[in-house]
Amino acid sequence: MIHTELFSGVKVVVRTEKSMTVSQCRWELRRFATRNRCPEISTAKEAYSFLSTIGAYADLPRFFKPCTKSDGESCHLLDQLDIWNQFLQEVGMLLEEVAPGTLSVAPQRRASDSLAAEYCNPDGWVLLHWLFKEHHCIANLRLLSPNKHSQLHLGDALSQNSGLKTLTLSYETSEDRLVTVEEIRMISSTVRRWTKLESLSISGLVLSNDVAVLLEASLEKLPSLRSLEVSFFSIAPACDAELLKGVFKRMSALTSLSLSYTFEPPDVELLLHCLGPGLSKLSVDDSFLVPQEGAVFQKFLSGNTVLKKLTLTQKVCTGMGELDNVFKGLLVNHSLEELHLSGFGLENPTMELLAEAVVEHSTLKILEVNFFDECWEMDGTPLAKMLGQNKSIQELKFEVGEVACYDAFAEAVRKNTTLKKLSLNLVHILHLPRRLCLFGH
């Protein structure tokens, strides 16, 4: 079979029948490589040499066969991963199966050694172009520090990929090296075309007015996006509030949101107001607890009937008042299934309030409380007493509690009928930590 496609306004004919000869395959792949797709291979001799190199390891017609993934069949790529990766390593990338029948392309080495490099062997780029153009079985892509060099090679191929559902962008950012608007613009123009994208993760983002405009435009063009994870390196003080509002409003269709940044109180209130009714997973730091000492977040939590998983990370709050208000909201919340508290050194009254909020909670299945300072001992006795009475908790993880509460947990385990996993990391300042992990009964 011969099918015709338009590429950048140029008609390209590609043979795809199983019976294509090696000679025909070389001819068609030479055309594929030279018709604007791979500028480094500019002559027939270079293309022939490239294909001859691959032919030494693989059967060319089978190697370049288009995607065969269907509802009942995996793609033939799964049988040739070793050969593909032998060439993809030249551009520092790795092709791997991340779920049955689902493939991912990710960096094989550090960003400075892979896509961010100033020079890469063109053979690997040719194969990446072919993969993204011909294989809808590639659903996940992770890029480190996407820059002008990598975008020139990947831009067209990525824009034509029809199966990409998960994208992870990790920008190498420091005080000496900030991500430029041009870098964001290059990847943004490509991302907008991935209308099937379901999950987007960006780290190291520097948010300015220009970047806010690009981010909003990208989110607007992703109707299938349901999960967003953004780690901001910084937000410019002069970033316009209306532009931030535009970005936040594009998050209203999300079911999962993770934000890593210490937001100002007005921005927190605006963001909480913009969150959609379908949000079931939320991960933020405790700057979200600052407005009105947690009262704003308490209102959000107490009236929420959809949120299933909440993760809070300590960054700025040093007192317990904000958490107290959050736990008061938990008292009247009857839908949350997972609560993760990271980095909070809970004082006794706050620990007791948490236990009070959880003890009668009928939907909470997973509770995690961890702290990272072994010189600070949390009294876990209230949690242990709660565990002995609660009838919904299936997993409890308690890190850096004082060793004196060990017996209380041992007694609670005997009383609890729903617990499947208990993880304890108990310490004494004068002794080594004592760790315990129990599974089931």
As a percent range, the share of strand residues is 15-25%
Estimate the helix proportion, in percent.
Answer: 25-40%
Class derived from helix and strand content: alpha/beta
Task: Report the strand count.
Answer: 16
As a whole number of angstroms, the C-alpha radius of gyration is 26 Å
Shape: globular
Protein name: Lrrc34 protein, putative
Organism: Ixodes scapularis (Black-legged tick)
InterPro entries: LRR-containing_regulator (IPR052201), LRR_dom_sf (IPR032675)
Keywords: Repeat
Task: Please explain how this structure is put together.
The chain has 441 residues and is α/β, with parallel strands linked by helices. It has a domain at 167-250. Helix content is 35%, strand content 24%. The chain is built from 15 helices and 16 strands. It has helices at 22-34, 44-55, 60-63, 81-88, 122-134, 148-159, 181-191, 209-220, 241-249, 265-274, 295-302, 321-331, 348-359, 381-389, 406-415; strands at residues 2-7, 10-15, 93-99, 102-107, 138-144, 166-170, 199-207, 227-235, 256-260, 281-285, 309-313, 338-342, 366-370, 395-402, 421-428, 431-439. Strands 3-4-5-6-7-8-9-10-11-12-13-14-15-16 form a 14-stranded mixed sheet. Helix 11 links the parallel strand 10 and strand 11. Helix 5 (122-134) packs parallel to helix 6 (148-159) and helix 8 (209-220) runs parallel beside helix 9 (241-249). The radius of gyration is 26 Å and the shape is globular. The termini are far apart.
